[in-house]
Amino acid sequence: MRNFLEDALDLAAQGVGRVSPNPAVGAVVVRDGVIVGRGMHTWAGVKHAEVLALEEAGERAQGATLYLNLEPCSHQGRTPPCANAVIAAGIKRVVAAMEDPNPQVRGAGFALLKDAGIEVEIDPDFTAWATDLNDAFVHFMRTGRPLVTLKAALTLDGKIAAPEDNQGWITSEAARAHVQVLRHRSDAILTGIGTVLADDCLLTDRTGDERSRPLLRIVLDSQLRIPAESKMVASCRNDVLVVTTSAASAERRRRLEAKGVRVEVLEGADGRADLGAITALLAKEKYLSLMIEAGSRVNWAVLESAIADKIYFYYAPKILGGTQSLPVAGGAGRRRRADAILFHNVKLHPITANEFAVEAWLDKWV
Questions:
Q1: Percent of all residues in the chain with a pLDDT value above 90, rounded to a whole number
Q2: CA distances (Å), 308 to each of 24, 276, 356, in order?
Q3: How much is the average pLDDT of 203-230?
Q4: Across residues 237-263, what is the average pLDDT?
Q5: What span, in angstroms and rounded, lies between the C-alpha atoms of 83 and 115?
Q6: Residue 2: pLDDT above 70?
Q7: CA-to-CA distance for 58 and 12, rounded, in angstroms?
Q8: What pLDDT score does 238 carry?
Q9: pLDDT of res. 331
């Protein structure tokens, strides 16, 4: 028998990409074993999932059970606290998949409900599903940093580019469509100037699905070499950020800013763009997630600096071989096998009959 929490989670999933910096939430009101109200949150819709579900249920909410993937909020934001709305509707029982990790809520919503005489239950069988669905929100609330995912398309021997002609794609159209889903889930995307110069890429979300705000496109460009006529600059609608250093030309900066490009000097001790400063800036501006699609050198810098939280690697049934083909992560690398970067919670995702993706979380080190 299908659990009503599954219905709530399926509703919540429809809000992914449409709610940031809020979490995706779905809610169903059930009375006498029948769903009488449904709701899901979208940023544009303003009202939270619980309120929408209660409004649809109307008087039938009296004495009913409310199922939702996340604890009802207890603080005033763009809308009044949802816990108060649940109490006012006469809900008898609330079943949720997880507690809200937001320090402003974290148990306070449940406490309000209990104080009002409402039975509260957290179903542990759905906690992992609920956490994964809102992984960026959960990570941001627990760490204060955006969730950083390093994405790459590579051959079975770990190569991302050939030494000469790189026309065509490594992975299939199906894999590239899957990447767009990841982009849609992300608040920002980052690449290096080498990738921009080589591919003249757009780095846009091409799913066509609604977003709460545009995907912020970020380029690491220490000397502001990005051409003013590049596709990224030409398509800028206040959604391109170029991170540079003090070595950059003031004239080039003025030219880019005149086209609506935001330019920030975030310089590290090595004279290059500071990756840590970028994530700090994103956190300050409430960008909850960052996806990185870059070249070999930037990929290694991301891994070595420990700003990455997870990887999403798409593998194609190909081998390039040779010593000159670029590996997924270049740079100095680790000199000893014992110092290899470690991962956990590894998941395999089938993409086509002959392609797969590896999702894994990095073990952090000091």
A1: 86
A2: 23, 10, 21
A3: 95
A4: 96
A5: 11
A6: no
A7: 21
A8: 94
A9: 87
Q: What is the pLDDT of residues 27-43, one digit of tens each?
A: 999 999 999 999 998 87
Confirm if 24 and 41 have CB atoms less than 8 A apart: yes
Mean pLDDT of 248-272: 94
User: Is 71 one of the catalytic residues?
Assistant: no
CA distances (Å), origin 297, targets 193, 301, 329: 11, 6, 6
pLDDT score at 76: 60
> In the structure, what pLDDT confidence band is assigned to residue 1 with cuts at 50, 70 and 90?
very low
277 and 298 in contact (C-beta within 8 Å)?
A: no
Report the predicted TM-score, pTM, of the whole model to 2 decimal places: 0.93
Contacts of 175 (CB under 8 A, 6+ apart): 153, 314, 316, 351, 352, 355, 357
- Average of per-residue pLDDT across 45-69: 92
SS (H, E, C) the chain: CCCHHHHHHHHHHCCCCCCCCCCCCEEEEEECCEEEEEEECCCCCCCCHHHHHHHHHHHHHCCCEEEECCCCCCCCCCCCCHHHHHHHCCCCEEEECCCCCCCCCCCHHHHHHHHCCCEEEECHHHHHHHHHHCHHHHHHHHHCCCEEEEEEEEECCCEEECCCCCCCCCCCHHHHHHHHHHHHHCCEEEEEHHHHHHHCCCCCCCCCCCCCCCCEEEEECCCCCCCCCCHHHHCCCCCEEEEECCCCCHHHHHHHHHCCCEEEECECCCCCECHHHHHHHHHHCCCCEEEECCCHHHHHHHHHCCCCCEEEEEEECCCCCCCCCEECCCCCCCCCHHHCCCEEEEEEEEEECCEEEEEEEECCCC
Catalytic residue selected from 6, 50, 71, 293: 50
Starting at the edge strand found earlier in the chain, the sheet holding 147-155 runs 262-265, 240-244, 216-220, 188-192, 289-292, 147-155, 310-316, 355-362, 343-352
User: What region does 210 belong to: left with phi over 0, alpha with psi -120 to 50, or beta?
Assistant: beta
Distance CA 138, CA 32 (A): 33
Q: Phi first, then psi: what are they for 329, rounded to 5°? A: -135, 110
For 308, the token pair is: 């990455």
Q: Where residue 275 falls among pLDDT bands split at 50, 70, 90?
A: very high
Output the six-digit token pair for 11: 């509703």
